[in-house]
Amino acid sequence: MTSASDVKPNLMHKAQFIEGHDLPIPTLSILNADGSIQAGAEAPEMDHETAIKLYRNMVYIRVLDERMISAQRQGRLSFYLTCAGEEAAVTGSAAAFSMNDMIMGQYREQAAIRWRGFTTEQFMNQLLSNEDDLGKGRQMPVHYGSNELNFMTISSPLGTQIPQAAGYAYAQKLQGNQACTLCYFGEGAASEGDFHAGLNMAAVLNCPVVFVCRNNGYAISTPAEEQFKGDGIAPRGVGYGIKTIRVDGNDILAVYTASIEARRIALENNEPVLVETMSYRLGAHSTSDDPSGYRSKDEEDKWREKDPIERMQNWLQAKGWWNGEEEKAILEGYRKEVLDALKRVEKKPMPSIDELITDVYDTPPAHLQKQYAELKEHIAKYPENYPVAGGAKHG
Amino acid sequence: MAKMNLLQAINNALDTAMAADDSMICLGEDVGKFGGVFRATSHLQEKYGKARCFNTPLTEQGIAGFAIGMAAQGSTAVAEIQFADYIFPAFDQIVNEAAKFRYRSGNEFNVGSLVFRTPYGGGIAGGLYHSQSPEAYFCHTPGLKVLMPSNPYQAKGLLLSAIRDPNPVLFFEPKRLYRASEGDVPEEDYEIPIGKAEVVRNGSDITLLGWGAQMTEMHKAADKAAEEGISCEVIDLRSLLPWDVETVANSVSKTGRLVIAHEATHTGGFGGEIAATIQQECFLSLESPIARVAGLDTPFPLAHEKEYLPDYLKVYEALVASLNY
To answer: Which of A150, A151, A189, A390 has its CB 3.0 to 4.6 Å from that of A185, i.e. a possible disulfide?
Structure first.
């Protein structure tokens, strides 16, 4: 029964309630941990070059994350947040989309912007808030964005991008862009009101948007079982009338297969799709967090055994597409690339103090220009107290 | 008396209130086992059980609405919003619901036993979404009370008053001072009256008025002025809604000059409300225009946080300009 005017309502004559778990949601699984293909499953069409590109993307992000965590501990950047454990969920989905498709992420999807070509130098510029940061040093580390790469700048408030993605996709459809929107968020953000508003509007207004919910088990310290009572996020998509699939997020072939199909449906049918990737946040929420206060090492170790990168590596090796020497070479190469870039970028100056008042509006209004003139006068009087404004490095 | 930092004082106040009131509940994101991202609710779940101190799903509007429901039932609800920057999804529940619950029902119902606690303010390299001071939005809402403590003693006494006040209260905690501010705090139960400012330093030449984390800068500015032989009277407003017009007006009538400082942006900041009222109350005593030192009218920056913030030097310059007017 979809509306009160339905002629043939589906009636029953005894009060029977539907249980919350009556809707069974299977999980798409293709790749075994040892790299073999599951019985009855089929690997997606993926040539050698694409497979290696996917794999290298995941390894790069793992290396970047490890190096940046150390750099944060050394006091070289203020904050960091890793994608560890979810590299396949993000890389496998992002790779299924075209460059014309917009990506609107949460903040744990550095693998997606890397896939589109964000350079090591660009990562470092943002992380160190210097004058070459595309975001002009205005946001905390990991809030990447690039107009050129069709990757909307990250916003810290959770879930806000979900209804925005529906609107973006609707406008793409109306403009005849032949493109869709890929929207990422976590299972915690799916508790925000914006999630419900966004999915419902996307469905009602037939928006070509693919929602990828990274269900990684934790929202900071809050485990999924304290986040929702139902069977994950996928049944909510069904509830909103959205085509929905759940995949093993540590299985890159499953994520890629589901995402290719999700994009096709979104574009061909002009309708939203929900993909729930089941994975685990292997690291802390961020460098400000310590998971030992709320979860066990045993639990973490169990998930480490399901590492998505190792799983793909096993598959590549079984196909004869990868070997230990190549592995060693890319690890060393990426480590060097990241550390060299960090050293280089650390020498760059902060953004000009003039950027303090730009971009609040298209042009700074008179009242703000006046405030800024007064500020500059003040700084000129006490230059030693405002070292950044004096052109020095970030203190 | 015990030495506590501001965070421990808040934790102690919550503990004291929960021990005295069986109906009191602490809720919010990560406040349960973890004790909150800043650990303000540490050990409360252990001590009072999961039913009375618990993690909520990640939804500020849900937290606010849920807390309102509990308060309407007559329980005491103390909800944490993880950062003041994230209070806006809850804005409708707080401004249209909590604030108007009593009025719209003709006092048939009320949500007086309700407090929203939330860390606010900059100085922690938090950028635009971990640094905001949104107090003015809420001070524009009849039906709410708004408190902003500046030290551990105030934090405990004001939070206990907030919890027991028969009206919904927003309690903004200066997170920059969570561990930086330490002081003697009575271990027993005590309350600090809402709506009363504290004259923290007596002086004769000029009045400096602030609240929360800004008080640190006010003291430094007054110290610097003292070196020049300028005597500043320093007032900590503590309570913004309602605010203590009498104490501020008495001081300004004496000194003839007033500098107000807040981290929040200049335009529409609460300093404007104070300036308008004080020029009304003290027009004939004023020797110079009331000065406001505030954040620039921009979102909160990251790389240029230090330049943006109203610091002691900016307060000092404002007070010198006022004296030389």
So the answer is: A189
